[in-house]
Amino acid sequence: MIPPAFDYARPTDLDEAVRTLADAGEDAKVLAGGQSLLPLLRLRLAFPELVVDVGRIPGLRGVREEGDTLVIGALTTHHDVIHDPLVRRHAGLLAQATETVADPAVRHRGTLGGSLAHADPAGDLPAVALALDAELVAVGPGGRRTIPARDFFADYLQSTLAPNELLVEVRLPKREGWGFRYEKFHRVAQSWAMVGVAALVRRENGHIAEARIGLTNMGATPLRASAAEEALVGAGGADAVARAAQSAAEGTRPSRDASASPEYRAHLARVLTKRAVLAATGTG
Amino acid sequence: MTHISVTVDGTTYEDEVEPRLLLVHYLRDRLGLTGTPIGCDTSNCGAGTVELDGTSVKSCTVLAVQADGGEVTTVQGLARDGEWTPLQRSFHEHHALQCGYCTPGMIMAARDLLRENPHPTAEEVRKALEGNLCRCTGYQNIVRAVLAAAQESAAPAARAASAREVTA
Fold first, then answer.
1. ipTM of the shown complex
2. Is residue A12 less than 8 Å (CB to CB) from chain B?
């Protein structure tokens, strides 16, 4: 279908982008790579008066290090995230999960920042950002502010970004020596995750010392499986991991749709948590 | 209306377009380049895959205004002086199409793969084409065609290498 009519602005720098968003108020939508927004427009599920194309603003693309932190520009494409040596070395979970996002053509256009700001609980990267304890940097009329990932996802397709704020950076603490795995269950190659599990595990003396588990599509926002994270501490073998994974769906409120019931999603969360953690510990 | 300047298959066009105009509609309806088809409304099928500034994109999921200043290559821009590329020839020779609707997108996606990975395995070809659907389910021959094209483009280098061995 043809998208609804909208006005179009292509600011050339960050200041102009923030001013344009501030002037437009609630009726503007930010366009980065467009791989989520354009399908919504085409299906007439969104009717912005103004589309603000931030795709050419300089300085928002690429990956750099700041001490113990990896800084990824919001406009860095999925393709570039997957192939970036710094990401692969310090945030392997993000690279591996991004490889499962959509398909190569979509990954050429879609951006990390766009995926997070879209705040789709069925998207793969929000749960990964939660598991990695990402910090998201937004710029608005009042300057920059840093939002921890756990405070960023407000509701279904809703982040805590103000309408006049732009996500500019994703900051990740470097995680060396952690095992990782993103497991996702979907019906066909490109469909959204029915459930996904992002696991990060640090081991000491053959036992799990720390675990971080992010859940995709187990509620209106991405979630951490806190009960399973606690239960995993001290787990040594596959049986102990399987037992701990039984609490992966605690505190979640998965939806019911044509593909799955809430009960089935809870089952998937437990199974995928077990698989992801075993793979992350290298014992899967 | 927004002014755009886009190079498509080697020709530069200056146009006034509505911001909502999709690149695929610009190619088909304005420029008459109907070799790039529209297969679905969900960004799933990949039939309309083209290259924008050297990488594959789904032309139904890019606005024409986003292509402003860019260089687009469609399946119609591949042949030189009526001579198909090895990949196009390989699709023909391996009967990698039934109805042909997915073929332009398959070829553009396969080009993208071979640029990054000139010697893919069958599994890598399948993964690279995950964003392209063939409604005739003719995937076997599509994979064969891509593998054969990869081998053919490797062949001249292999021949040159063996020629060097002979002279040495």
1. 0.94
2. no
